[in-house]
Design a protein that fits this description.
By secondary structure, the protein is mainly alpha-helical.
């Protein structure tokens, strides 16, 4: 995902009117947002990725890997970051499944406890 698309996602998530407001929430300047918009800057740094992930409520690992993939200069670099992104997505899916299953497991545990 392009860095400016992430900035736009922050604007939408926080219902912000301007790029300046998004910049303030991410911890960058309005000029930096402009550079991302024009393509002068192609990626967010890791710290900015973490901030964006917190705002959007998604995995920082995925955003960081995505931004490194976006900035990769060689096919080998791209392949490495694509693999990392794939594994980060798989890990997130497993964690989501476990998190969703926890209430049911707790209920089963309570039922077993009362049967004893």
């Amino acid at each position: 995902m392009k860095s400016y698309e992430l900035i736009q996602a922050v604007k939408e998530k926080l219902n912000l009117e301007s790029d300046n407001q998004a910049a303030m929430n991410i911890g960058i300047t309005r000029a930096t947002v402009s550079n991302h918009k024009t393509g002068k800057c192609r990626t967010l740094n890791d710290e900015q990725c973490i901030t964006v992930a917190k705002i959007l409520g998604i995995s920082a690992e995925q955003i960081i890997a995505d931004q490194h993939l976006e900035g990769a200069k060689t096919p080998e670099e791209r392949a490495v970051w694509q693999n990392i992104l794939k594994y980060a997505g798989s890990a997130a899916a497993v964690l989501t499944g476990v998190t969703l299953a926890l209430p049911a497991l707790n209920l089963i545990h309570q039922c077993v406890y009362y049967v004893k």
